[in-house]
Specification:
The protein is an alpha/beta fold. The protein has helices at 2-14, 29-35, 53-60, 64-70, 75-88, 140-170, and strands at residues 19-23, 44-49, 93-99, 113-119, 130-135.
Length: 174
């Protein structure tokens, strides 16, 4: 899995961009995966593990009414977590994971319901972010591992697309 983390960190470093991560169900595993890559400190600023729902509001700025209405396992919550950690840690890009790893359902959502989000630079094409909704199978550890892989792939894919778009603009659209 560190291959996708290395790919994402390389793409960030090529553009001198930084990354911050907000984690819930993954409990620090995304940050651990990123920091397992030598040279991660060039781009990785840090992370917030906001496991408790209240911390998503207090530390990451997730709308309290949204949390009360939909719970923490929600696509818009994931987006707000990614934007919040990006802004609070002063990064160009933010990532977030929220979901239900089990063994019990949470907020009316079944085990394996996960949302991963990426939010790019303010004013950029992904400043508003992108979310992937996942329905994962397996035990708690498998769901958490797959969530880490999925959020890092989402980031790497968005960075690849963003880099191609910038190259096209710089080369006159060819």
């Amino acid at each position: 899995m560190s291959r996708v983390a290395a790919r994402a960190l390389t793409l960030l470093a090529e553009r001198s961009w930084t990354l911050a991560v907000a984690e819930s169900l993954t409990g620090g595993l995304v940050a651990a995966e990123l920091t397992s890559v030598p040279g991660a400190s060039k781009s990785f600023r840090g992370s917030v593990t906001a496991y408790a729902t209240g911390l998503k509001r207090e530390l990451l700025g997730v709308d309290g009414d949204l949390l009360a209405e939909r719970g923490a396992v929600d696509s818009e919550v994931a987006l707000q977590m990614a934007a919040g950690v990006r802004d609070r840690l002063g990064a160009d890009w933010g990532l977030a994971t929220t979901g239900v790893a089990g063994p019990e359902p949470q907020d009316g959502q079944p085990v394996g319901t996960v949302y991963v989000a990426v939010c790019g630079p303010v004013g950029g094409p992904l400043g508003t972010g992108k979310v992937a909704a996942l329905r994962l199978n397996g035990d708690r550890a498998e769901i958490r591992r797959e969530s880490v892989r999925s959020v890092l792939e989402l980031l790497a894919d968005e960075l690849s697309g963003n880099a191609r778009a910038q190259d096209t603009e710089q080369n006159g659209g060819n």
